[in-house]
Fold this sequence. Notes:
The chain is α/β, with parallel strands linked by helices.
Amino acid sequence: MQKELFNGNLNLNQELGWQDIRTIFLNPCKVLILTHKNPDGDAVGSALGLMWILQKLGHTVNVIMPDDSPLFLKWLPGHHEICVHDRKSGGRIIPQLFTDCDLIICSDFNASERLGSVEPLYRQCTKPSLLIDHHPVSESFTKLQLVDSSKGSTSELIFLLIEKLQFVEYAGIEAATCLLAGIVTDTVGLQASCSYPEIYETIAALMRLGADKDRIYFEIYNMFSADRMRLLGYSLDKNMKVLPEFRSAYIALTIGELNSYRHKKGDTEGFVNYPLAIAGIVFSVLFTEQSDHIKLSLRSRGSFPANEFAQKYFNGGGHKNAAGGKFSGTMKEAIDRFESVLEEYRELLHADQ
Ligand code: 5GP
Ligand code: MN
C-alpha cells in the first residue's frame, strides 16, 4: 500500500487515520530504523531523533546505516548506538535485527537502492515497513509512506509527525539536537529549501526542547581539519572549471588528489556549493573518484532541475536543487558526458534571469 500520508500539509488521507498511526507508536515493539548510504546530516539526524523519541515511548530501537557517517556528525547524541553495515557493529548481528524486528522505518530516502549493501537484507524481510521522507518522487518500497516533499528535511517531518501525534513530551534534548542538526544540514545552514515561516516555528520548538543552535553550527561547520581546508583551497583554485555559456561550473577530484590531502570521509561535503556563489552560476557539480565509480553531487539554483539531470544521465536523483548520481568509467569520461549533455539543457539553464 503506497500512501502519501502527509500530502503536503500533514493531512492523512482516508484509509489510515492519525489515530491508527498513534496506536501503532503507542504499542512498544522492536523497531528497526534504516537510512541511506553516504549518510548526510538529515539521514543521521532524522534516524537518531526518531530513535530517541521511540525509545522514550518504550520501543526497542536499532538504527542501521549501510556505511559510516562523516566525522562532523559523530558528536550527535546516540551516534555510537548506530549499527554500520560495512563495519563491526558492537556484537549485534545485522541480519538478526531484521529477523527480530516488528516494524521497519525507512528515513530520508526514496529508492531501496539507496540502502546499498543493506538492500538485500531489506528486500528479503517481510516485516511491516513505513517510509518517512521528503524527496519528490518515491519508488514504492515500503508498505506505508509518510512523504511530504514541500519540507526542507526529513528531520522537520519527524518533528511535525510527533507534534501531530501529540508525542512532543517524549522529545528530549537529545532528539531535539539530532532533529535540528538534520534541519540545519539539509537546508545548507538555513539557506535553501526553508523559505516558509513554519520551519522557524519547528526550529523554535526544538530550541525550547533544549537544542543548542550555536553548538550545532559549530560542530558541523567549524570543526574541519587543516587538510580539509587546504583541499578546499586546491579544489577552487586548481580544479574548478566555470562554463559561463551554460551558467555551470564543476570541480573534479581524483583519488590521487584526495589522498594527497589525506582525505577523510565527509571532507568534500559542501564543496559543491561554492561555485553557486559565483554570479550567474545556477548549476554546480562535484565529481569525486571512488574505488569503482565516479560519484556526482549536483546543486542548482532556482528552477533548474538537478534531480532530472542526475536521473537522466548519471543514474541518480534527489531534490530539484540538490541531487546525486554515479558514473561507471573514468573521470575524463564522466566529465565528457557532463559537458556534452549541457547543450541539451541550455534553455533551462537560462530560464531564470
Ligand atoms: P549528495 O550530493 O549530498 O550526495 O546528495 C544530494 C541529494 O541527492 C540527497 O538528497 C540524496 O538523497 C540524493 N542522492 C545522492 N545520491 C543519489 C543517488 O545515487 N540516487 C538518488 N536517487 N539520489 C541520490
Ligand atoms: Mn534529507
